[in-house]
Design brief:
Number of strands: 18
Strand order of the largest sheet: 6-10-11-18-17-16-15-14
Largest sheet: 8 strands, mixed
Number of helices: 16
CATH topology of the largest domain: BirA Bifunctional Protein, domain 2
Number of domains: 2
CATH class of the largest domain: Alpha Beta
CATH superfamily of the largest domain: Bira Bifunctional Protein, Domain 2
Distance between the termini: 23 Å
Helix content: 25-40%
Strand content: 25-35%
Shape: elongated
Oligomer: single chain
Radius of gyration: 29 Å
Length: about 500
């Protein structure tokens, strides 16, 4: 904004104050929503409106001003709806006429008048009054160009929402997605709960935490990386079906699919296993997609995705064998597996263990190809310290990940409820941490104590809300589906 424009708006604000008007009143009186005006009168033609004139009071932000001599038009916007106001200067009293000249694009105003239609058929309020109810001291971005600077879109999301209909659409889809998910889980007798965000010990995922300081107790505390261990405590306590939709925090890099602050839905069901959670997540996502998008088929990055029907299942071993020719279960140790990978002309990267090499091969060669909803099952035990071992192969666990559009959307286990096995897994994670694995799971004695009191066979599921919304809205980056994504400091 130029200094001259800033000065001009400030001068008009001063002029408004000089008239004795309050440009930022606390109360403005009753008004009809703009959407309500359209709903009530949009079906009437000009003759019908003229035959039964009705007066209405409206309020909103001025998005455009057009002047044609003695006639002035405002485009008003409120809660996504727009409506035109018209002012006939010769018919206005001196006070209203003076106020009209002090209104800028971006100001919020309240007006009253009779509903009518212009010669072009535009539903309009023929206003005889105008009151500034919040003065805007900065010009809005041009409607047709919006915020050209992508960084500015996220740093000043309020402006992006004002001029970018796509940003508003994504925000609405996200809200409706969460509402539909809650409705589904409530319908299956799940209880929505809240667990601590600030924790004395983080856990439930392989991730580095954010740390903080609790001054009152002289204690280091952590922002949660997952809700899992507290939700399992609730199952142990007899709340057999629980879920939480909330923020988690992982001190990791930023990418198109990753943000350090993100939203997860986690749910746990007693007397269930990972097969039951497959049925649950498929039914839930299909319910959400159909309810929010109006059908089960959508287009994401020019690829059609079908959410209906029964989703295919493939083991991580079979998927890798198909895409790389490497049978990971026939290479039972790290050295053998690495040699097989090199024989196939593939890059083994820096993975230091058998399980991590399996995971890296999958991420590089399989994950990007999973466009349609697909369950990938039977993951390495070393990558799944909270999951039950497979009864078919002790190197694997009863776990699945759901992939859509080349992204992991959900992760689920038959939850490990043997406290001795869980302690042994934690000990293995402690050794991994000592060897330099910064994402290794810490030993949690409080959780082990809870587990020793008995947890029934339980299925657990975590689903990333942000990634699901990316797919539903065909967004290019996770920052598009977060209203306020974390941004690199300006100038850094």
């Amino acid at each position: 904004m130029s200094e001259a424009e800033r000065r001009a708006r400030a001068e008009r604000l001063a002029a408004l104050r000089a008239t004795g008007a309050d440009p930022y009143p606390a109360s403005i009186g009753a008004v009809m929503p703009l959407a309500g005006v359209r709903e009530r009168w949009d079906a009437l033609d000009a003759a019908a409106l003229e035959a039964t004139p009705e007066r209405v009071a409206v309020a909103g932000r001025v998005m455009a001003i057009r002047s044609f001599g003695k006639l002035v038009f405002f485009t008003l916007r409120e809660n996504g709806a727009t409506l035109q106001l018209s002012f006939r200067k010769p018919e206005l009293d001196p006070e209203t006429l003076a106020t009209l000249g002090l209104v800028d694009v971006g100001d919020f105003v309240r007006s009253e008048g009779v509903v009518w239609r212009t010669r072009t058929g535009e539903l309009t309020v023929g206003a005889t009054s105008v009151r500034v109810i919040a003065k805007c001291l900065h010009p809005l971005p041009e409607k047709w160009h919006g915020l050209v600077d992508v960084e500015a879109r996220y740093r000043q999301r309020y402006l992006d929402l004002l001029v970018n209909e796509e940003a508003r659409r994504i925000a609405l889809v996200r809200s409706r997605t969460v509402t539909a998910m809650r409705s589904f889980l409530d319908g299956r007798d799940f209880l929505e709960v809240e667990t601590p965000v600030l924790q004395p010990l983080y856990g439930g995922a392989a991730a580095r935490p954010f740390t903080s300081r609790f001054e009152a107790y002289d204690q280091t505390v952590y922002l949660r990386v997952s809700d899992e261990l507290y939700l399992k405590r609730l199952v142990i306590g007899g709340l057999d079906r629980v879920y939480e939709i909330g923020r988690d925090f992982r001190n990791e890099g930023v990418s198109r699919k990753h943000n350090p602050e993100f939203t997860m839905m986690e749910c746990y069901q007693a007397y269930a296993d990972y097969e039951d959670m497959m049925e649950l997540v498929q039914a839930m996502v299909q319910h959400v997609v159909a309810g929010v998008m109006g059908g089960t088929r959508l287009v994401f990055r020019e690829q059609e995705i079908e959410f209906g029907g029964v989703w295919p299942r493939v083991s991580i071993r079979d998927a890798l064998l198909e895409k790389t020719g490497v049978d990971v279960l026939a290479a039972p140790d790290f050295a053998t597996l690495r040699a097989r990978v090199l024989e196939k002309g593939l890059d083994p990267g820096e993975a230091p263990t058998w399980g991590q090499l399996v995971d890296q091969l999958f991420s590089d060669h399989v994950e990007p190809t999973l466009v349609q909803p697909t369950f990938v099952t039977n993951h390495p035990v070393e990558l799944s310290p909270l999951a039950k071992r497979s009864t078919e192969d002790p190197r694997l666990v009863e776990r699945f990940e759901l992939f859509v559009a080349g992204m992991e959307l959900a992760n689920a286990f038959s939850e490990l409820n043997d406290p001795a096995d869980q302690r042994a897994r934690f000990d293995e994670q402690r050794l991994a941490a000592a060897a330099g694995d910064q994402d290794a799971h810490p030993l949690d004695e409080e959780f082990l104590l809870a587990l020793e009191h008995g947890m029934p066979p339980t299925g657990g599921l975590g689903l990333g809300i942000d990634r699901l919304v990316i797919v539903l809205t065909d967004a290019q980056h996770i920052r598009e589906v977060l209203l306020f994504p974390y941004m690199r400091p300006e100038g850094a």
